[in-house]
Amino acid sequence: MDWGTDLWDQYDGIDKHTQSGLDLVDRYVKFVKERTEIEQNYAKQLRNLSKKYLKRGSKEEQECGFTNHQSFQDILNELNDYAGQRELIAEHMMTGICVELTKYLQDLKQERKTYLADAKKAQQNLEISFKQLENTKRRFAKEWGEAEKATQQAEKIENDTNAIKADVEKVKQHAHVKTHTAEECRNDYAAQLQKYNKEQNTFYYTEIPQLFNKLQDMDERRIRSLAEGYSQFADIEKKVLPIITKCLDGISMAGRNTNGKQDSMRFIEQHKSGFERPAEVDFEDYSQGIKPASSDANLNQPKIRTKLWPFSHKKTKVCTLHTTSHTTLH
Amino acid sequence: MDWGTDLWDQYDGIDKHTQSGLDLVDRYVKFVKERTEIEQNYAKQLRNLSKKYLKRGSKEEQECGFTNHQSFQDILNELNDYAGQRELIAEHMMTGICVELTKYLQDLKQERKTYLADAKKAQQNLEISFKQLENTKRRFAKEWGEAEKATQQAEKIENDTNAIKADVEKVKQHAHVKTHTAEECRNDYAAQLQKYNKEQNTFYYTEIPQLFNKLQDMDERRIRSLAEGYSQFADIEKKVLPIITKCLDGISMAGRNTNGKQDSMRFIEQHKSGFERPAEVDFEDYSQGIKPASSDANLNQPKIRTKLWPFSHKKTKVCTLHTTSHTTLH
């Protein structure tokens, strides 16, 4: 079974079928192009989101290395890598599918046009040859008819006893010439018929089968490349899935690395003043000869003590001070 | 190590630290919300893309079931399922992370406000009590000074031989009263001091440690929930990865199911007319007594034959005809 043998009389069908095949490739390329645009846009939005919140993260807290702040930063970085993978998908679809198939499509279009044109040309030649056959045949029929008439006239005049000998010769001569011409036309017709049948045979058993089989082969090649393009649509994304999974693992890790206990302890290290809590206020017994001074001076010491909290021991720049606070306060 | 013991004098630091902790949760919720919007939009675009090309696929070719057309339709359907999974990610992030954490955040804000307010109140009470202590102490100092003066005057007048007995009694009486009052102030001061030291002790060793430890516990709970939200950000997507992989496998399958040979054979089945190719045209020998008729009539038969292709055997509706074509032509 092949187009050349089984569809020898389906030129129009093959024309239509191969065209719709190329249209499908064209439609698929457009489809993938639109997918890559969606993917590009998606990646861009994820990148901007990650950038936006990376900036926002308060500098101080990052330096302080609290796990619950650090982990958010880690997640934002992973999301940025994630976006990079989506961009990769878009790029590979564009180069691996769209560019490839578009190039290939041009060649196929050209190839198809050539085959169909060759078939049309061969058909026109056959039709011209057939018209010539009709003409030679018509001429043979006409000449033979006239030759027969002339022969009958010759026979008639020969049997006419009153005929003049010279006239008889003239008519016989005429009939002879006519018959001769008719025989020549008969030979022309026979030759043209042979020529036509040879051409018709070549047309139906060689030219058309070859051209239609080339079109079938072309269409099957088209489908192979299209199938390749179909598979790539999935394979390209499958290829990046492991890295995408790595990004997701990184995010899970950031979740596990977030440790509340650790952060409260770190906060203590950074803010501990090292001061003792105020001792009891002493009794000042003026009756035992202590001189009552100005109450201000007198009450000065306990006043400082009780005012220890919450107004003193402020740490303005926590992180930078936090190491020194150890050395100075222990 | 805990905030209550080690950060007893860091009210402002704890205030600032716990606030920035809640701000981080708030920022994370906003971040996830924006991610879900991106995801929703991405899914929507993929859905529309798939719908757009599903519609476009020529009805006829789908019915004809050419693998290379059918596979494209399969891919579009898989892409639609794929989009559904992305939507699922967006929904689960919204409900599982944003809604949960936002609810939780409100409770934490309230809880924090309460603890900080209680600490401030306790501190104000202590300061009031300290002012009372200062007052009793000042009064004691003053009264004791006056009592001493009165006592000295009494001693002076006693040793004065010219003094009138009545005056001596009066001055001694006055000194006695003053000393008595001073002793009462001394007792008030002692009592107030005891009261204050008790309150100060409760403040520094009970109230503040308890409140600051509650704040530490609250902050650690906040971090645990935030860490949970971090992990979910990855887990929600991990959960749909197997189904997304199924979609990709479906697309690869569509690629493998695309078979060019099969499609050309199917095309033959649908378009084969079953007609034989034209036989050779016969020689019509009018010289053997065949009557030459009107050339039209005469040339009628071969004319049809050679005109077989490409004008006849048209199949208008391929698919519906294709079964009958078998029955009628074989």
From TrEMBL, chains A, B:
SMART domains: FCH
Coiled coil residues, start to end: 105-167
SUPFAM superfamilies tied to this protein: BAR/IMD domain-like (SSF103657)
Keywords: Coiled coil, Lipid-binding
Keyword tRNA processing (UniProt): no
Protein's name according to its UniProt entry: Thyroid hormone receptor interactor 10
F-BAR domain span: 1-263
Coiled coil keyword on record: yes
Gene Ontology CC entries for this record: cytoskeleton
Database matches in Pfam families: FCH
Molecular function GO labels: lipid binding
UniProt xrefs under InterPro entries: AH/BAR_dom_sf, F_BAR_dom, FCH_dom
